[in-house]
Amino acid sequence: MTPEAPVFPIFLKLGGRRVVVVGGGKMAASKLGGLLHSGASVTVVAPETTPEIDRSTAIVLRRGFEPSDLDGAWYVVAAATPEVNRRVAAAADERRIFVNAVDDPSNASAYAGGVLRRGGVTVAISTDGHAPALAGLLRESIEELVPEEIETWVEEARHQTSRWRGKGVPMAARRPMLLAALNRLYLRRGIDPYDEKDGVGEGRG
After folding, report:
1. What are phi and psi of 37, to 5 degrees?
2. The predicted structure's pLDDT at residue 192
3. Domains in the chain with CATH codes
4. What is the pLDDT of residues 98-153, one digit of tens each?
5. Widest Cα–Cα separation across the chain
6. Fewer Cβ in 10 A, N or C end of the chain?
7. Which of the 8 DSSP states describes residue 48?
8. SS3 call for 54
9. Which of 114, 110, 104, 108 is nearest to 135 (CA)?
């Protein structure tokens, strides 16, 4: 990928798919929870590993990295030294596998963003690997904006989407229809949907 090219944002379904993490330190451990939560079958390759990794359900190979470790993998996380990360990146490129090199954008073909999960909604923010701390701060700011009842919104949106598909409602018409449906949820509870604290409306001003 050309350094100047913009990234293409996407969410991966890793359930049941093989993912390799190269490195056994704190950075590797910080990536492990999210990968296991996604249902990925994770293999960690590292001469030494943290207790957190040892307690996880990941398969651990306590040795140095070998290119063949990536055979059959769908996604790779390189969280080792720059030299090892370069070897991982080269092996991944040969196999057409995307690799997230932690805090090492020059060896990465994929960036992991700051992630917020709540009530069936996932928000991820990326700075193209250049400012991960900023991505984390932005995630925390967005977290304050996402309402606690977002799960109710998701359930209503799923219900409405099913109806719209059955009726052939075009995509362009669905957003205002969804806004109206969410507003009705608040009205049934006796709440002003345009209240700044509680509502989902776009404001009266």
Report:
1. -65, -30
2. 61
3. 18-112 (3.40.50.720), 147-205 (no CATH)
4. 999 988 888 999 988 777 777 887 777 877 777 778 878 888 888 888 888 888 88
5. 63
6. C
7. S
8. helix
9. 114
d(CA 21, CA 31): 8
Distance CA 120, CA 12 (A): 15
In whole angstroms, what is the distance from residue 161 CA to residue 88 CA?
Answer: 42
pLDDT in the model for residue 2? 47
DSSP string, 67-123: GGGGTT-SEEEE-S-HHHHHHHHHHHHHTT-EEEETT-GGG-SS---EEEEETTEEE
Residue with tokens 């490129």, as numbered in its chain: 93
Helix (H, G, I), strand (E, B) or coil at 138: helix
**β-strand partners of 101:** 78
pLDDT at 193: 56
Q: Are 139 and 116 in contact (CB under 8 A)?
A: yes
Q: Is 13 helix (H, G, I), strand (E, B) or coil?
A: coil
Q: Are 77 and 21 in contact (CB under 8 A)?
A: yes
The per-residue pLDDT for 200 is 58
